[in-house]
Amino acid sequence: MITDYISGMSATTIFWAVNSIAVFCVCVLCTGLFIPQILRISFRKRLFDKPEERKIHQGIVPRLGGIAFNPVIFFAMALVFGLCQSLGYQNMLGEIATESRTLAFTFCCVTMLYFVGIADDLVGIRYKAKFAVQIACGIMMVAGGMWVSNLHGLLGIYELSEWLKYPLTILVVVFIINSINFIDGIDGLASGLCGMASLFYGIVFLLVHEYAYAVLSFATLGVLVPFFYYNVFGDATKHRKIFMGDTGSLTIGLILCVLSLKLLQYPETGIPEDFPNVFVLAYSPLFIPCLDVVRVYLHRVRNGKNPFLPDKNHIHHKLLATGLHQRMAMVAIVTASVLFSLFNILLSVYIDVTLLVIIDVMTWTLMNVWLRKRIKKE
């Protein structure tokens, strides 16, 4: 099925694929150059993430890696678009103009969360303030024309009414942002999951001819690749290791939310019968972060704890408790996410989306029960 789409790629699709690769390369290069400078400044100004009981890492590690994400993504996209215009490729203006309203509000929301993240990484911000800004971002996304208008058969629901789709969109925005923020607990986990999701969205958007969002997806992947290297393979004793902090997790979380919402708006009409369910296509890459935050939230509420205050009950904490090394736990979770996405997308052609989601939830629940029993035996 996918090969049929690839073989039928038009000259326009190839043009945008080249632009996507160019943006990806610019982002990799710029982020790779900026992170060492951020590390140098962090150590000079003593801007560290110090170890504590809840945290996994040992030693002092800067948590300002996310500072590079937002400006690099904007710079790379503007540079490549500008160069294309200078070289006479005027046909891309139509695609950008069509999405200008949504992209404008998206960049505003990303910038808001960028500054909130910086403030939180440097001096700390109460969760209520971050929650309020996230709600404001949800409202702005609705104003930008991005909303959950169709569930594509989930619970038998398709088109949503006006009074339901707007508050549901705000809820989804806040939920996904926090899902990415909460999963950022061990080296390479958030960047690995978000990188795979960005690659997936980029390829899908190229195939469905939503080119502006394909470029945004590959730009996001481009900033995550060098960060992943420094985060996973960097040596803290040599001042080469860095965390993305809330600056990174909040902004990347919003970008992934925008990409998933845009894919969810793909129309039901006119698509082939063997095309995957759109709801599954939009949210399979975010399956593990979303289900993990739901489980952790319910666990905290059940135990009388504040659901917005951190603890050590995430899926990566459970894997570490079984004796896995950080890197192995990260690889296991990212691999599970990729496998879940592939199986969901393939099965969505043959299985009802509601049944498929139930199977996913049951699989996730059984996995956590097995881990809990494994931990008790240790």
Q: Any chance you could write out the topology, listing elements then pairs?
A:
Blueprint: H1 2-7, H2 11-44, H3 69-86, H4 92-98, H5 100-122, H6 127-143, H7 162-183, H8 189-207, H9 211-233, H10 245-264, H11 278-283, H12 287-302, H13 315-321, H14 326-347, H15 353-377
Structural features:
378 residues; 0% strand; mainly alpha; 15 helices; globular
Structural class by helix and strand composition: mainly alpha
| Tally of separate helices | 15
Radius of gyration: 20 Å
Q: Could you give a short account of the major beta sheet?
A: none
Helix proportion: over 70%
H/E series:
HHHHHHHHHHHHHHH
Any idea how many domains?
1
This entry's quaternary arrangement is single chain
Total strands: the figure is: 0
Task: Provide the low-confidence segments as ranges.
Answer: none
Mean pLDDT: 89
Q: Which shape, going by the Cα principal axes?
A: globular
Distance between the termini: 46 Å
Strand content: under 5%
Q: What does this entry look like structurally?
A:
The protein is mainly α. It has helices spanning 2-7, 11-44, 69-86, 92-98, 100-122, 127-143, 162-183, 189-207, 211-233, 245-264, 278-283, 287-302, 315-321, 326-347, 353-377. It has one domain. It is built from 15 helices and no strands. The longest helix is centred in the N-terminal third of the chain and has 34 residues, at 11-44. The model has no long low-confidence stretch (mean pLDDT 89).
Summarize the model shown.
The protein is mostly helical. Helices cover 70% and strands 0% of the residues. It has helices at 2-7, 11-44, 69-86, 92-98, 100-122, 127-143, 162-183, 189-207, 211-233, 245-264, 278-283, 287-302, 315-321, 326-347, 353-377.
